């Protein structure tokens, strides 16, 4: 065998070995142990991480509880305002202020009752020093108009790097056409200050007939939002039958609902003109057909599960009861992997301060789960 042939054979074996090691790394990186941190939560919707290894959890019927580092579930906190606990409504997302350890401030959103029905509201509060109740509770933003519906509240909160707040808002199902209009908050993402005022630099500020809180529009029902590793906002939203989407909402852009969609009417048949694209309307980064009913969304920024999946995106599936691990490259979805497919509706997904992933299961006796690497 010539020297060049020997070198070619060695290179081929080396490439095969590297590929094998890479494949093993991907498999092992996904190999996790599911640990139940807490059980017996009633339809938990969101989790935030408190100091000293504790957790702040919302329950959709209208309760907020602290779960100890030992998994013990505390009593409901006082001070939570009345919520419309019907259908998809109730006490929904919660997020700690970036300065929580200093100011004990948090934000939560819920279905707020009022004249005409209900709507998604964003409140600000302080956690009492003895952890027993919310204090100084005030609603800083309320979606307009209120609608007689128990569907499509949206309601994910994200604090941006500049300190302003993004809030996702559903189009309330029966008012889907309003998602294309700028004189209301239905089917929108809004961007507000921590006092609830329109954030400086919003795209429709000063435009006649447009609400200045609006950041982007043409959304359906977004129950997942997070910041990407580069600080940009990512969100996903439910389609009807098919057409769940992942988007990177940009200022002033129109994301198409209900004019364009990859979904179909319940019971069959096209929605509107039955088209999936139109000039001036944004295409999703990714979409699912059939729908997985996504809820919760988090990027993995730690290497606790191995370097192979650092930077992956994780989305919960309500419909199929699994965690979707999404590989991204070049701004596109390359592959998806089903994890912890236990048949429990996954409502929230977060990366904890320890770098591990946590999920909430939306059941009458829901669980807070931690994914530990083996």
CATH topology (fold) name = Neuraminidase
Strand content: 35-45%
Compute the CA-based radius of gyration: 22 Å
Under the CATH scheme, which class?
Mainly Beta
Class by SSE composition: mainly beta
Largest sheet: 4 strands, antiparallel
Q: Overall 3D geometry?
A: globular
Short recap of the structure:
Helices cover 9% and strands 40% of the residues. It is mainly beta and 374 residues long. The protein has a single domain, classed as TolB, C-terminal domain (Neuraminidase, 6 Propeller), CATH 2.120.10.
Task: Draw up the topology in text.
Layout (H helix, E strand, L loop, with lengths): L2 H28 L1 E10 L2 E7 L3 E6 L3 E5 L23 E6 L3 H4 L1 E10 L2 E11 L6 E9 L11 E6 L5 E5 L18 E5 L21 E4 L3 E7 L5 E6 L5 E4 L38 E3 L5 E6 L13 E5 L5 E7 L2 E8 L6 E6 L5 E5 L4 E8 L1
Antiparallel strand pairs: 1-23, 2-3, 3-4, 5-6, 6-7, 7-8, 9-10, 10-11, 11-12, 13-14, 14-15, 15-16, 17-18, 18-19, 19-20, 21-22, 22-23
């Amino acid at each position: 065998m010539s020297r060049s042939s020997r070198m070619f054979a060695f290179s081929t074996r080396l490439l095969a070995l590297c590929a094998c090691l890479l494949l093993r790394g991907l498999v092992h990186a996904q190999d996790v142990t599911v640990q139940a941190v807490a059980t017996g939560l009633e339809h938990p919707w969101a989790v935030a991480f408190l100091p000293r290894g504790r957790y702040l959890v919302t329950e959709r019927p209208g309760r907020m509880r602290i779960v100890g580092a030992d998994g013990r579930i505390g009593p409901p906190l006082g001070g939570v305002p009345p919520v419309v606990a019907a259908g998809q409504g109730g006490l929904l997302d919660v997020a700690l202020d970036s300065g929580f350890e200093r100011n004990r401030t948090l934000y939560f959103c819920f279905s707020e009752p009022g004249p005409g029905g209900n709507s998604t509201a964003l409140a600000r509060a302080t956690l009492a020093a003895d952890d027993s109740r919310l204090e100084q509770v005030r609603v800083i933003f309320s979606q307009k108009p209120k609608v007689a519906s128990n569907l499509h509240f949206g309601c994910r909160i994200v604090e941006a790097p500049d300190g302003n707040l993004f809030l996702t808002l559903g189009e309330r199902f029966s008012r889907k056409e309003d998602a294309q209009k700028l004189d209301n908050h239905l089917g929108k993402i809004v961007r507000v200050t921590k006092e609830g005022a329109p954030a400086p630099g919003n795209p429709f500020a000063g435009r006649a007939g447009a609400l200045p809180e609006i950041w982007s529009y043409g959304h359906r029902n977004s129950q997942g939002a997070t910041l990407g590793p580069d600080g940009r906002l990512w969100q996903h939203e439910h389609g009807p039958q098919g057409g769940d989407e992942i988007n990177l909402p940009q200022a002033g852009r129109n994301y198409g609902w209900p004019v364009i969609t990859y979904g179909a009417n319940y019971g069959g048949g096209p929605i509107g003109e039955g088209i999936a694209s139109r000039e001036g309307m944004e295409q999703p980064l990714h979409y699912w057909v059939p729908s997985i009913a996504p809820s919760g969304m988090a990027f993995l920024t730690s290497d606790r599960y191995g370097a192979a999946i650092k930077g992956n995106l994780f989305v919960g599936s309500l419909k199929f009861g699994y965690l979707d691990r999404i590989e991204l490259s070049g701004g596109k979805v390359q592959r998806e992997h089903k994890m912890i497919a236990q048949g429990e509706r996954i409502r929230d997904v977060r990366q904890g301060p320890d770098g591990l992933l946590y999920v909430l299961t939306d059941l009458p006796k829901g669980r807070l789960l931690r994914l530990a690497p083996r």
